[in-house]
């Protein structure tokens, strides 16, 4: 059984923010669209929600944040939800992966996405506020050895790191990771902001260039994102492009529902009016049937953001 929303979009993925806190402060961070909350889900509560989601056909789970690895019980969370999930992944800034990767793998995490906007130590510090690039690179190299898939997330910013794209493609090919090139995303009301105008770097022209160079192009079901297989001096690089701004095809193929760290189902990254409380009913003793109804309610609120 898979639930389908009013726009014919099946819901197969759950993106869980396990904490809103972070040990870095990237200046562009959208914080997964989350507001400051007063409570945090326990591992048992996360497990309960994942179990209900799994019964509704939502079997791909992404753990995110804030920074998921700063939770001291992150390994327990992975262990608890592993049995209900077919694809269990995490998106992390990688700052502690050099010491946590083995435990996470052993607990059942399938794959990781690690954020890496630059290979330049000074620039890394400028973007994130912290001089920790060497640790992140160690974590990436360790993760590549342990997980079946590692993706590097590069948010591309005009005049800040856009000239590093080809270096990043070569680096990813060299270590055997996939590179995700990501356009900066902001809600509609921020598209006129100084920040967006200054840093937004459109990836469409680059995609046109990739199309000519690629030996193969694939399209993912989720968001219909394109993956380009590009020859480099280090072998074939796999490059995925996340181009979500004003992209109606992206939203029309959105299969995700979100869960905030303070226990609300959230239907869209960029909306601010779409929270459905699931933690309060759990804490008040709701049955699984009641929780299924809460999921259905949230899924009925879903609508594509860019139309
Ligand atoms: N607009 C929008 N952006 C998203 C969505 N999901 C992920 N993103 C963005 O895509 C980028 C990569 O996100 P990740 O957390 O690495 O996850 P992912 O690449 O979407 O997921 P996988 O490919 O399954 O690993 C980030 O910049 C996210 O903000 C979504 O549903 N809507
Ligand atoms: C919000 S972070 C949370 C997980 C973890 N702290 C990390 O940095 O990977 C998830 C992903 O969203 C990306 N991201 C954050 N703000 C963004 C923005 N405004 N536009 C596009 N991607 C963004 C980050 O680079 C990261 O890859
Ligand atoms: S590490 Fe992730 S959550 Fe933390 S500020 Fe950077 S993008 Fe945001
Ligand atoms: S509807 Fe669009 S903007 Fe909203 S979460 Fe889905 S893909 Fe992202």
UniProtKB/TrEMBL annotation:
Q: What is its EC class?
A: lyase
So which cofactors does this thing need?
[4Fe-4S] cluster
The residues that the entry says bind S-adenosyl-L-methionine are 28, 66, 115, 190
Matching SUPFAM superfamilies, A to Z? Answer: Radical SAM enzymes
Q: Residues in domain Radical SAM core?
A: 6-233
The UniProt record gives the binding positions of GTP as: 15, 62, 91, 151, 256-258
Catalytic reaction annotation: GTP + AH2 + S-adenosyl-L-methionine = (8S)-3',8-cyclo-7,8-dihydroguanosine 5'-triphosphate + 5'-deoxyadenosine + L-methionine + A + H(+)
Give the EC number(s) under which this enzyme is classified: 4.1.99.22
Looking up Pfam families in the UniProt record yields: Mob_synth_C, Radical_SAM
Q: For binding [4Fe-4S] cluster 2, which residues are annotated in this chain's numbering? A: 251, 254, 268
This protein's UniProt keywords = 4Fe-4S, GTP-binding, Iron, Iron-sulfur, Lyase, Metal-binding, Molybdenum cofactor biosynthesis, Nucleotide-binding, S-adenosyl-L-methionine
Q: How is the cofactor bound?
A: Binds 2 [4Fe-4S] clusters. Binds 1 [4Fe-4S] cluster coordinated with 3 cysteines and an exchangeable S-adenosyl-L-methionine and 1 [4Fe-4S] cluster coordinated with 3 cysteines and the GTP-derived substrate.
The entry marks the following residues as binding [4Fe-4S] cluster 1, namely 22, 26, 29
Q: Which InterPro entries match?
A: Aldolase_TIM, Elp3/MiaA/NifB-like_rSAM, MoaA-like, MoaA_arc, MoaA_NifB_PqqE_Fe-S-bd_CS, MoaA_twitch, MoCo_biosynth_MoaA/MoaC, rSAM
Q: In which pathway does it act?
A: Cofactor biosynthesis; molybdopterin biosynthesis
> Per the UniProt entry, what is one GO biological process?
Mo-molybdopterin cofactor biosynthetic process
Molecular-function annotations in GO: 4 iron, 4 sulfur cluster binding; cyclic pyranopterin monophosphate synthase activity; GTP 3',8'-cyclase activity; GTP binding; metal ion binding; S-adenosyl-L-methionine binding
Q: Which NCBIfam families match?
A: moaA_archaeal (TIGR02668), PRK00164.2-1 (NF001199)
State what this protein does.
Catalyzes the cyclization of GTP to (8S)-3',8-cyclo-7,8-dihydroguanosine 5'-triphosphate.
Which family does the record claim for this protein? Belongs to the radical SAM superfamily. MoaA family.
Annotated protein name in UniProt: Probable GTP 3',8-cyclase
């Amino acid at each position: 059984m898979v639930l389908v929303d009013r726009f014919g979009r099946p819901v197969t993925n759950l993106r869980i923010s396990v904490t809103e806190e972070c040990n870095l402060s990237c200046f562009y961070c959208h914080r997964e669209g989350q507001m400051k909350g007063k409570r945090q889900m326990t591992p048992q509560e996360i497990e309960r929600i994942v179990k209900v989601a799994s019964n509704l056909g939502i079997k791909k789970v992404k753990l995110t944040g804030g920074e998921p690895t700063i939770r001291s019980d992150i390994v327990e969370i992975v262990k608890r939800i592993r049995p209900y999930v077919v694809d269990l992944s995490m998106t992390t800034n990688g700052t502690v992966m050099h010491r946590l990767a083995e435990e996470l793998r052993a607990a059942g995490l399938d794959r990781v996405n690690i954020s890496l906007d630059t290979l330049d130590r000074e620039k890394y510090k400028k973007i994130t506020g912290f001089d920790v690039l060497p640790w992140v690179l160690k974590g990436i190299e360790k993760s590549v050895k342990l997980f079946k898939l590692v993706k590097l997330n590069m948010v591309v910013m005009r005049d800040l790191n856009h000239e590093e794209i080809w270096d990043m493609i070569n680096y990813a090919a060299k270590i055997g990771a996939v590179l995700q090139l990501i356009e900066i995303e902001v809600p509609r009301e921020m598209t006129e902001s100084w920040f967006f105008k200054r840093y937004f770097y459109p990836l469409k022209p680059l995609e046109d260039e990739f199309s000519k160079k690629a030996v193969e192009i694939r399209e993912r079901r989720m968001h219909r994102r394109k993956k380009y297989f590009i020859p480099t001096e280090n072998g074939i690089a796999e490059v995925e492009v996340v181009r979500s701004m004003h992209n109606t095809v992206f939203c029309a193929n959105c299969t995700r529902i979100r869960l905030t760290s303070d226990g609300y189902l959230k239907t869209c990254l960029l909306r601010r009016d779409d929270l459905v409380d699931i933690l309060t009913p759990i804490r008040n003793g709701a049955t699984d049937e009641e929780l299924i109804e809460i999921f259905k309610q949230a899924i009925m609120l879903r609508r594509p953001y860019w139309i």
